[in-house]
Specification:
2 helices, globular
Amino acid sequence: MDAAMMFMDCPEYMDKHGAVRCGLPAEVESRYTVRSTDGPLESAKIRCPRGHWFNGPVELLTLSTRQGAAVSQAANCDRQDTAPLPARRSRPE
């Protein structure tokens, strides 16, 4: 039996824009493999000290450096969430 503890960064979003993550060390409580049409997926159940928990493929639970840079750029941009959407054209009948 392997007694070593494993940790991952908690992927929980902490703001409504998806720019800030929890990032606390989340303990890997269990690891397992899921079958898929593309082959087996290494999966895990993780939990952080704040109580966030996730259960899914490891590749979706980790934030890559490239994704982190994109999130940082989005957070630094001036966003206007209240901007009106463009009008939709109606279809000719």
